[in-house]
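I hope you will forgive my troubling you with a question about protein structure. Could you please explain, in whatever detail you think fit, how the structure tokens follow from the sequence? Thank you for your consideration; the sequence and its tokens are set out here.
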Amino acid sequence: MQAPSTLSRRSFLAATAALTASAAFGVRAAQEWPAGKTITWVVPYPAGGSTDVLGRAIAQQLDALLSTRVIVDNRPGATGTIGAARVARADADGLTLLGTSIGPQAIAPHVMGKLTYDPVADFAPVIMIGTIPHLLVVGKEQPFKTVAELVAAAKKAPKSLAYASGGTGTILHMQGELLQQKTGARFLHVPYKGDTPALQDTLAGQVQFAFIPAAAALPHVQTGALRALAATSAQRLSALPDVPTMAEAGFDDFVVEQWQAVFAPAATPAPVIDRLNADIGRALQSSALVALAQQLGITLAGGTPQALDQIRKADFDKWGKVIRDAGIKPA
């Protein structure tokens, strides 16, 4: 009866040795990666936006950290899903990355109908770049001084108040839907092709209000062209200490921040993900990135791939429920 036992022990030792060798190879491969090969950083939005500007700055930092060239490839369209699909189809070698936001990964899949990729299964999380709070703003000619006044007017005359968004399925749209569901008020949603025209028409009084990224709204609030009724962050913004949070305005569970993050194709080797996480994390600590983030109104985050994975899954579920409850059908 000794032979089977001996054979099992030999098999176990052989398997252990193989796993150890494989792990050593993985570490060695990650140290050598990317071995001078060009890395493509896909931005699923047009050039010039915050996601693009931030991505280019990080790519520049990675050039030196990884001793290679990192190029930015803008693939805009379909609320960011065209660029996401490009990365989902790429080889899982860590040479194609997606620098994206909450929209294509957690919101658009619920409103875009059948996509060519799975927003969870087809991507390996790398790192959270940062978060962007929003402001609920009205034009200077609007009579509303508080969120409660805005909601009361909408309840009195359903769909008499219009709000702008950067498009159906964007985070700006979703915040309006969330406000409706929490209050029972009914607003008229006016989607635009991007945040900028939505902001412009809010300034011009073509719509009554909008949720706008804080950095974009701040200059207009400071000049008096816009009035900020509340911030969607957990804490008051240091630049606007007199503007309450949505919770302080009487609307609990309304912390909404637009995150920016990096993903790789699913099945990208873990040592490569770890290397990317570490080096992008170093880039986020550079003085140049910190200064740029302040200009863009982004709170830099960092953290582990696992932490990003939890956030994206939670937001995917959260906004999926909001969309279903709103009766929004996939286009």
Summary: The first helix runs from residue 2 to 32. The longest strand covers residues 123-139. The chain has eleven helices and ten strands.
